[in-house]
Amino acid sequence: MLKFIKQNLETIDGVSIYPIISLVIFFTVFIGMLFIVFKMRKSKLDELEKLPLED
Hints:
Blueprint lengths: L1 H9 L6 H23 L2 H9 L5
């Protein structure tokens, strides 16, 4: 199955840009989430921390 997909992808012009784009999108989202978490207030973190244990 993987051989079939790889063979089809090799025939597409410019397909090598897709892994680079996906990596940039991944790191952008990851860095954005880290920024949001570090900027979050301590009281909000405590509230979210206790959320799974509440009934």
